[in-house]
Amino acid sequence: MTTDAEARFDELIAADSRIEPRDWMPDAYRKTLIRQISQHAHSEIIGMQPEGNWITRAPSLKRKAILMAKVQDEAGHGLYLYSAAQTLGITRDEMTEQLITGRAKYSSIFNYPAPTWADMGAIGWLVDGAAICNQVPLCRASYGPYGRAMVRICKEESFHQRQGFEILLTLMQGTPAQREMAQDAVNRWYWPSLMMFGPPDDQSPNSAQSTAWKIKRFSNDELRQRFLGMLVPQAEILGITLPDENLRWNDETGQYDMSEIDWTEFFEVLAGRGPMNTERVRARREAHENGEWVREAAAAYARKQAAKAVA
Ligand code: FAQ
């Protein structure tokens, strides 16, 4: 039998309204949101590492300032998203614990290394580009705190994507060695960036329910295609080759034909066996342990202020 609360929830979803933290919601809806939002938050936090690695080696003061601002934005996105997840009843400590013990998922993309400066360009162009394609529809996600967080995050991601494009454009206008470096970085990040959208639709166990709940608005494959449509003309402007000899527009299907993605690689990375999985989680765990004194000091300060307010 449907209760009044359930009927109200269904009505809100059907009307494209928002579910807010105080509203009744099915346990499975709460659980799936905690899963997706916490994974998303972890991705932002772990995603600081490949670029953080280049802050001290950026080729100019201006590049260093821009990269630092970008990495700080990612920290901000992570904190926003952790806060959104907390409204669903999970604590920040629980989420952190899941991440540093290697039990939580985060985006597969951050388990690849960033060995050259051109990787900063490829990450901005491809990784942030994929993030925008995936996240713009999430601004309309049915859960209020998630959708609202996405609006600000997407604005910042589009700046990030442009700065990546601009790094690659500068390299492509440089020496043959710089052009080669840019092409090499794109060759390495292209396929993993296509994997960011998740498994193919017929192997995506969460899609049907998340779409019915209007958390997801488009399927993994639809968004992957939208991303390709954005990349192809931009690659032409850059003078960069997308590393897929079978990539071409198909008039009949109205979308791009492409080679099969190496899903074995994707599932290996998800299972913790990507090139950088161990290192990424180790670095996060170490940073958390090294930050213990800061958390203690902040808590002591808060206690002192609270005692003063009472006195
Ligand atoms: N990596 O049934 P589906 C960024 C998992 S952007 C790892 O299709 P769903 C910005 C999935 O969780 C990156 N795991 O799942 C930035 C599920 O496992 P579970 C973060 C993946 O949820 C840029 C299983 O596979 N963005 O950080 C991946 O319906 C530059 C089955 O998959 C978001 O998180 C993957 N790529 O669709 C920062 C966006 N794909 O949980 C720094 C929000 C799938 O059942 C620098 N998330 N899995 O054990 C989403 O839109 C969705 O969760 C999808 C997956 C589309 C990622």
TrEMBL record:
Q: Which domain of life is it from?
A: Bacteria
A Pfam short name: PaaA_PaaC
Query: Which segments of the protein form a coiled coil according to its record?
Result: none
- Mind telling me which PANTHER family this protein's record contains? 1,2-PHENYLACETYL-COA EPOXIDASE, SUBUNIT A, PHENYLACETIC ACID DEGRADATION PROTEIN PAA
Q: What is this protein called?
A: 1,2-phenylacetyl-CoA epoxidase subunit A
Gene name tied to this protein:
paaA
